[in-house]
């Protein structure tokens, strides 16, 4: 017996206030609240159906069969909630450079959470969908919603979920992603953040600082103050990466081209263009700017980078079903 197949689409998000460290590894409960912007350009489409003839979950990513062990652990959560024992067929197409610091896991697990829960016959409220997506990847909790989103850390499984801050934003802002390296990171986000939590002497100060950053950026978003939003996001990102260099053993996601982009953004800003950078766990740089300035910034980047490396995104929507059959 085969269930109906549901296909969901979820977009990535870029954290402006970072989450970097878990207080519960199994439940994926973060040490601090975070805030992100969901982007329209990068997304994942995932199709799920349950098939009683299967002896284990089957998972295809970009048309290639993958080891399904990690996906199966997530699907076990779905089966437990839905009181199912049937294995699933899962097909996912990633329109994001995977594992290179562009939050592909966020869109992947948000799409999987919706498609799998629907295929299992569940009708989850978005808060519960956010909680479920979190169990696959922390940042996926935020990709359930569009626009500006806050992930509330909570204290347990029930209280840790994301909420929309300004979902259908009319703010004409832009995010330029400079893709420096699409390859798999040498140090995964999970390993990196755990090393920081366990060894960085500055971690307690990071938590306190992030709480202040979150309060001030929410106010700046409400005021439509791009200069303040950008400055807070940039400083928050650099504080996160400074933690990595203070860990033992220390590590960095930066590459030489990463530093070049940071310097160029600082140069453009000195010339009067309002633009700021942020980076997640990877070498790729995201530049926050107004849509009006994006062409000028792209022209300057094109001097050193191929056009294929420069991707432009705007505020994007939350997770949604795109088909069922």
Task: Describe the structure in your own words.
The mean pLDDT is 95. Helices cover 36% and strands 26% of the residues. It is α+β, with helices and mostly antiparallel strands. It has two domains: 6-170, Ribosomal Protein S5, domain 2, CATH 3.30.230.10; 173-313, GHMP kinase, C-terminal domain (Alpha-Beta Plaits), CATH 3.30.70.890. The chain has helices spanning 69-82, 104-119, 126-134, 140-143, 189-199, 203-222, 226-246, 256-270, 294-301, and strands at residues 6-17, 22-24, 29-30, 34-50, 58-61, 64-65, 88-95, 148-152, 161-166, 173-178, 275-278, 285-290, 310-313, 320-324. The protein is built from nine helices and 14 strands. The longest helix is centred in the last third of the chain and has 21 residues, at 226-246. Helix 2 packs across helix 3. The strands form three sheets. Strands 1, 4, 5, 6, 7, 8, 9 and 14 form an eight-stranded mixed beta sheet that branches.
């Amino acid at each position: 017996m085969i269930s109906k197949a549901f296909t969901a689409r979820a977009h990535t998000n870029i954290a402006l206030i970072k989450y970097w460290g878990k207080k519960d590894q199994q439940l994926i409960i973060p040490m601090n609240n975070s805030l992100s912007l969901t982007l329209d350009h990068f997304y994942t489409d995932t199709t799920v159906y349950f098939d009683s003839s299967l002896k284990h979950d089957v998972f295809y990513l970009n048309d290639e069969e993958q080891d399904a062990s990690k996906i199966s652990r997530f699907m076990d959560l779905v089966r437990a909630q839905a009181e199912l024992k049937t294995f699933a067929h899962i097909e996912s197409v990633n329109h994001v450079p995977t594992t290179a610091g562009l939050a592909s896991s966020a869109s992947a697990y948000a799409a999987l959470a919706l498609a799998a829960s629907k295929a299992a016959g569940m009708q989850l409220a978005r808060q519960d969908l956010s909680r479920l997506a979190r169990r696959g990847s922390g940042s996926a909790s935020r990709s359930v919603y569009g626009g500006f989103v806050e992930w509330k850390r909570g204290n347990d499984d029930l209280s840790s979920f994301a909420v929309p801050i300004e979902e259908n934003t009319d703010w004409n802002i832009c995010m330029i992603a400079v893709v420096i390296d699409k390859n798999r990171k040498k140090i995964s986000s999970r390993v990196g953040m755990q090393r920081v939590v366990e060894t960085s002497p500055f971690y307690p100060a990071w938590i306190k600082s992030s709480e202040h950053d979150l309060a001030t950026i929410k106010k700046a978003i409400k005021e439509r103050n791009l200069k303040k939003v950008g400055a807070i996001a940039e400083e928050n990102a650099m504080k996160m990466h400074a933690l990595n260099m203070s860990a033992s053993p220390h590590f960095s996601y930066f590459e030489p081209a990463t530093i070049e982009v940071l310097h160029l953004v600082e140069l453009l800003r000195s010339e009067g263009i309002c633009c700021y950078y942020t980076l997640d766990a990877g070498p790729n740089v995201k530049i926050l700017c107004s849509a009006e300035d994006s062409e000028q910034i792209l022209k300057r980047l094109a001097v050193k980078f191929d056009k294929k490396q420069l991707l432009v995104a705007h505020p994007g929507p939350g997770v949604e079903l795109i088909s069922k059959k």
